[in-house]
Amino acid sequence: MTELLTRFGETFAASGLVALAAAFVWGVLSVALSPCHLSSVPLVVAYMSGGEEFPTGRRAVWLSSAFAAGILASIALVGAATAAAGRMLGDVGRVGNWLVPLVFFAVGLNLLGVLPLPAFASAPASTGRRGAAGALLLGLVFGVALGPCTFAFMAPLLGIAFHASGTGGAAYGVLLVVLYGLGHAAAIALAGSSIQSVNRWLGWRNGARAVAVVKAVAGIAVCWAARTSSGPRCEQTGAEMGLPVIETPASAQACCAKPAATPVQPDEASSGRSIGRTVALLAAGLAVWTAAYLLVFPLSEHLTYRVLGLARESHLGQSVAFFLYDAPKVLLLLVLIVFGVGIIQSFFTAERTRALLAGKRESVGNVLAALLGVVTPFCSCSAVPLFLGFVEVGIPLGVTLSFLISAPMVNEVALVLLFGLFGWKIAAMYLATGLTVAIASGFILGRMKLEHFVEPWVFESMKANATYQSERLGFTGRVAKGLESVRDIVGKVWPWVLAGIAVGAGIHGYVPEGVLAGIMGKQAWWSVPAAVAIGVPMYSNAAGIIPIVEALLGKGAALGTVLAFMMAVIGLSLPEIVILRKVLRPRLIATFVGIVATGILMVGWLFNAVL
Amino acid sequence: MKIQVLGTGCAKCKQLTANAEKAVEELGLDATVEKVEDLREIMKFGVMTTPALVIDGKVRTAGKFLTVDAVMDLLRS
Q1: Is the dihedral of CA B40, B42, B48, B49 positive or negative?
Q2: Mean pLDDT to the nearest integer, A524-548
Q3: Which end of chain B is more exposed for a tag (fewer CB within 10 A), N or C?
Q4: In 3-state terms, what secondary structure has residue A258?
Q5: Which of A215, A235, A248, A255 should one mutate to test binding to chain B, selecting the residue with the greatest count of B CBs within 10 A?
Q6: Given this structure, which CATH class describes domain B2-76?
Q7: Residues in chain A within 8 Å Cβ distance of B11
Q8: For residue A144, what is the DSSP state?
Q9: Sign (positive/negative) of CA torsion B41, B42, B43, B46?
């Protein structure tokens, strides 16, 4: 795959028929490789399934071709404009080197939501008419709306076309882009036409249900694509297609309860057929994920040093390469791990965790509570009911606190980021020391017999007059849970990840090596308490803080200092303290914070001393 | 019919209350939607994760935000 990409890059540069053929193949591949473009397939499907059944045969070919033609027209327009610009400006060598990165940069900012580009803001609104004209229009708008994504794949090609029109005439440049567009459109038309076969392959006999499922998937995909070009459109597009609206994570919602769009039907979970299908879809998903993951590095290198033409030694080059490599890599890892953890978490509901902990002795209980804190879904807004629920069944205070320390501090997002950015050793160290802090702090707090600093009403008998049994899930139900977590968690943290990596990229490229060694290095013993003191009141999720931490580390900050900072930021926070105040008296809260902070401090010093 | 949303005041709890109200309206049910914020009251239902949705005294979901459609499904069954 990697070789393939390099080969295409080189072939573009060579002139002649080979390059034209390569442009066509690249067009086909651009659909197969890009998630944005793949989403155009479900869009055309959703469009065609405006009725109850998918169109078949000729009509399917006709409609998807019209849609593809629309996209093609958009791309050709962009291509012609580029070629014309190349001819007019004459001195393409220099201008081309500037203009392409500029366009690319603008598009990148647009993708990040920093720079709104008016052309991309028009929603593919016309889903009303179901004729070929409607499909054509939809394709046209979609082609423009997908601008940022299209450019990512067209950038190598545009660069060549730009040069070609300066040296070999505009016609050749236009031809290159048109052929790319043809390949691109052909792939979409083919995919759209074969929906009925895909449908049959998946073994859906019930046509109406297939339409519903495909529409839901299409909605998510289109929202994703729409979100990459401009945020609020997502809801509009989704709603127009009659889909459950996916929320934009813009508002600062402290609660992490998971949205449930589709309640799981137990009867479906038991059928072997649906299990087989889920497994097939999972395998396909994993294959796509692996391909994407393998492509991240070569693509980031190619984009930074060849397409953008940045020098390897330059500050900008290092920053851009850092961002283009880390951002997709971390997001991919996040999706996979959050999905996996979502499935694991479906086995550990708060109720089951409580049942496991009830009746355990203190020491064993502390260890178990800290471990369960990692795998039990936790949200700081549920901290108090959880605390009450634990205490109610007689789980000791210290054990309960072990759980409340470990649950936010040692979470899957933190571990994924540490693994992705630092490697497995540091992730494992974080896991081990985080658990140790949770176990030890909870144990000590338990020994201190602080029960009388819990608000007295907590221990009043609160015999529940209703009991809640969490729903039973089958295999497909658990997979649905995993997807739900991905949508919920990744949907919420991705802007943080990107922002964090952007700041990290800046530090990586521009701050000189070793500059932080003096203030955050091993020798400065006071840097650990300073990091903890700054980190405790701060509240950020792991996603925002870790990429910054990585950059600090690269510039000479000591690992212990940096890990202590991170634990303090995500493990203890002012909002959580305020919430816990409802059930704990100030004295107990102060002791709790003091002991946990001391634990973190020890971890910091230990690492600085040992490593 | 009596619908209660249990939650201490996080954003999702408020949204769930709004969704429950919308669902009742859409189905044209004769039902009251009540938000329960008092911790002691919440604990009486035996839930540990919020928001929770209670229909006629029976906890139907906990620790889960529901769309209007999902609430409507629960109300129908």
Answers
A1: negative
A2: 77
A3: C
A4: strand
A5: A255
A6: alpha beta
A7: 251, 253-255
A8: H
A9: positive
B46 to chain A: which residues are within 8 Å by CB? 389, 464, 466-468
The tokens for A471 are 């729903």
Cβ pair A54, A127 in contact under 8 A: no
Cβ neighbours around A62 below 10 Å, total = 18
Measured between alpha carbons, how far is A528 from A123 in angstroms, rounded to an integer?
A: 50
Q: How far apart are CA A101 and CA A108, in angstroms?
A: 10
- Catalytic hit among B3, B5, B13, B71: B13
Indicate if the pLDDT at residue A514 is higher than 70: no
Q: Please give the full DSSP string across chain B, using - where no structure is assigned.
A: -EEEEE-SS-HHHHHHHHHHHHHHHHHT---EEEEE--HHHHHHTT--SSSEEEETTEEEEESEEE-HHHHHHHHH-
- Cross-chain Cβ contact A385/B48 below 8 Å: yes
Residue B10 is among the residues annotated as catalytic for this protein:
yes
Q: Which residue of A has its CA nearest to B6?
A: A385
pLDDT attached to residue A462: 55
- Is residue B71 flagged as an active site residue? no
A281: Cβ contacts below 8 Å, ≥ 6 apart: none
Share of chain B above pLDDT 90, in %: 0
For chain B, domain boundaries? 2-76
pLDDT for position B48? 81
Domain positions in chain A are 2-248, 342-460+475-610
Residue A164 in contact with residue A15, Cβ under 8 Å?
Answer: yes
Contact B46, A351 (CB under 8 A): no
Instruction: Determine how β-strand B52-55 pairs with β-strand B64-66.
Output: unpaired
For residue A440, what pLDDT is reported?
92
Res A439: pLDDT? 93
Among candidates A255, A462, A583 on the partner chain, residue whose Cβ is nearest the Cβ of B13: A255
Please give, rounded to a whole number of angstroms, the shortest distance from the CA of A292 to a CA of chain B. Answer: 32
Give this prediction's pTM.
0.55
For an interface test with A, the pick among B5, B12, B41, B56 (most A C-beta atoms closer than 10 Å) comes out as B12
Question: Under an 8 A CB cutoff, do B12 and A381 touch?
Answer: yes
Spatial distance between the Cα atoms of B3 and B10, rounded to a whole number of angstroms? 18
Instruction: Taking each helix axis as running N to C, give the angle between helix A527-535 and helix A586-610, from 0 to 180 degrees, rounded to the nearest 10.
Output: 140
Hey, which bits of A241-369 come out as E strands? 258-260
Number of C-beta neighbours around residue A570 at 10 A: 25
Q: Considering only residues A27 and A589, tell me which one the structure prediction assigns the higher pLDDT.
A: A589
User: How far is A434 from A428, CA to CA, in rounded Å?
Assistant: 10
Please choose, from the candidates A174, A121, A171, A128, the residue with its C-alpha nearest in 3D space to the C-alpha of residue A144: A121
Mean pLDDT of A102-108: 48
Q: Is the alpha carbon torsion for A147, A148, A154, A160 positive or negative?
A: positive
The DSSP secondary-structure symbol of A570 reads H
Mutate to test the interface with B, among A253, A378, A382 (most CBs of B within 10 A): A382
Name which of A410, A392, A401, A389 is nearest A362 in CA terms: A401
Q: Quote the distance between the C-alpha of residue A219 and its chain's center.
A: 17
Instruction: DSSP letter for A584, please.
Output: B
Contact state of B63 with A379 under an 8 Å Cβ cutoff: yes
